[in-house]
Amino acid sequence: MRQTVVLLFCAGLLGSCCEPPAAQGDEGQVCYPNDTCNVGLTCIGGHCLGPDENCGNTICESNETELSCPADCSNGTCGNDIIDDNNAEVCDGSELDGQTCVSLGHFGGTLACTANCMDFDETGCHSCGDSVIQIPEVCDASNLGGLTCLDVGYLSGTLACSPDCISHDTSECTSSCEEVDCDTCMSSSCALAACASEIATCENNSDCLALYQCLEGCTDINCQTNCNNQYPQGITDYMAARSCLVCDPNICFDECNGANDCP
To answer: How far is Cα 94 from Cα 96, in angstroms, rounded to an integer?
Structure first.
């Protein structure tokens, strides 16, 4: 009788207190010490969880295992990093069967596998024509890496990239300055390259630079005379640079007169 009363009291007043506690390794409970759970569950963050809503989509997700979602992660399914020839897989996750962007004809980049394991994902690869310079490219389409004809040994012209991106197209570059009109000679890259020595000499002479800045603001002969008197140590270097830029017949070609002269 006493035993019956105790049992009724426990069932009626304490409800679930007499139910056996959830066991370690069950869903929602802590994992076993070796980070495992009961069949069908996966240890994630120290607790046993069941398969997520993506289980069954034939892709083994990062939070799925062969135990928690055998439909997706058992041997022979896409996403298990094992190429299954029977399922016509060409790659699987990080398993690319030894292929790289280079082996597939690209210059470099990162090769990946498509979600269905049926093809390679080459969007991370780089090829000639994508405007991205990758080794061994020296240029790519309009991307010349900031270089001009001057940087590759010519005096003027327009630099381009070769169709294979391995070399520069210098067909529009020239080593001659005869095509430069005197009207634009002082600002042309051709003249600046040909007169580099004279320009450097002036730049290293503080009086020459000061004289140049002073004369830039002059509009009459009196102003010019005052500048010359103020910076006499810069006159010789200034005139050498200016004469080279404006009147060197080897640099400027007067298209109007058709002769090597300067206005």
So the answer is: 6
Which residue is it, tokens 């109007």?
256
The span from the CA of 162 to the CA of 146, in Å, is: 15
Position of tokens 């270097």?
237
Task: Kindly provide the b/e burial profile for residues 42-72, where b requires at least 16 CB atoms within 10 angstroms of the residue's own CB.
Answer: bbbeeebbebeeebeeebbbeebbebbbbeb
Confidence label for 73 from pLDDT (cuts 50, 70 and 90):
low
Closest CA to 238 of 263, 212, 216, 206: 212
pLDDT of residue 139: 92
- Give 99's contacts (C-beta < 8 A, 6+ positions apart): 91, 111, 120
Please say if the pLDDT value at position 47 is more than 80: no
Whole-number pLDDT of residue 257: 38
Burial of 27 (0-12, 13-18, 19+ CB in 10 A): middle
How confident is the model over 195-203, as a mean pLDDT?
A: 84
Q: Which amino acid is at 112?
A: A
d(CA 132, CA 53) in angstroms, rounded, equals 40
Per-domain boundaries in the chain: 46-127, 133-175
Q: Which residue has the tokens 């070609």?
A: 253
Q: Alpha-carbon distance 43 to 36, whole Å?
A: 6
Cβ atoms 166, 189 nearer than 8 A: no
Q: What is the pTM of this model?
A: 0.37
Tokens describing residue 45:
């963050």
The C-alpha atoms of residue 191 and residue 253 are separated, in whole angstroms, by 11
The tens digit of pLDDT for each residue in 239-255 reads: 888 777 665 545 544 43
Give the Cα-Cα-Cα angle 219, 224, 225 (nearest 5 degrees): 140
